[in-house]
Give the backbone structure.
Amino acid sequence: MTGRVEGKIALVTGGASGIGRASAMSLASEGAFLLVTDVDDALGAATVGAIEEAGGRAAFLRLDVAIESEWQAVVDQIRSDQGGLHILVNNAGIAIGGSLLEMSLEDWRRQQAINLDGVFLGMKHSIPLMRDSGGGSIVNISSVAGLKGSANLAGYCATKGGVRLLTKGAALECAHNGWKVRVNSVHPGVIDTPIWDKVNPEFLAGANAVDLDAMASAGVPMGVPGNPQDIANGVLFLASDDSSYMTGSELVIDGGIMA
Ligand SMILES: NC(=O)c1ccc[n+]([C@@H]2O[C@H](COP(=O)([O-])OP(=O)(O)OC[C@H]3O[C@@H](n4cnc5c(N)ncnc54)[C@H](O)[C@@H]3O)[C@@H](O)[C@H]2O)c1
């Protein structure tokens, strides 16, 4: 049986953990060659190991999405080693919570640099190679926090709202130029990944850790957190030709939060 992304070359940012890891594994299981990228070399290599163990093909490339020269080097390497690129999943992200009044400008800029500049740089440097490869699909991971505001997450909301409209602008630019590159965003709700363990003390407001089940029970209509695979299923759909008439759209996967 042929996979849904058979023979495609795919790059996933933040592929070492959570949603990026699940997306990389799903794309590989459906026949793509995976370039797993991250700033965490050990966990990135572990994702590649898991893909290969499951019979897929993958390689790890270190890439800090906020650094333009690293994007240039990675895309140049893919052009010379793989000869093309068809799928880009801009997934790498961080969440810095807490009151807007207490957020340092440094933290604001760090979050913008990874969550929003990273998506801009990824598209800027990958679209020419994708266009030269006959076209492809870009999936940008935004959030429900890119669709509605959330107290104590204003800076994060700003980055994810930016990703939402950056996606639509890029989709139209690609369509108008006939580049055959589709661009869509995915908006996860509360998903059980390590991002919640990395949350800053200001966000916890005195607690030791985020209680994800309690949070989901209170705020998610379906009552439970989602799994990384729930999001990977949407990423695979948007990356594959199953969504061939979709561009500039937003796929909400949130257990009903936005309903
Ligand atoms: N988990 C959720 O509830 C949730 C909800 C909505 C949106 N999201 C978004 O999903 C995406 C993935 O998050 P996750 O929950 O899987 O988190 P995660 O922390 O499990 O994974 C994020 C990955 O990004 C990597 N990363 C961080 N900074 C980087 C940088 N500068 N360059 C490259 N890689 C970097 C980390 O090393 C990590 O491997 C993020 O964009 C996040 O904002 C998550």
The chain has a mean pLDDT of 97. The longest helix spans residues 105-132.
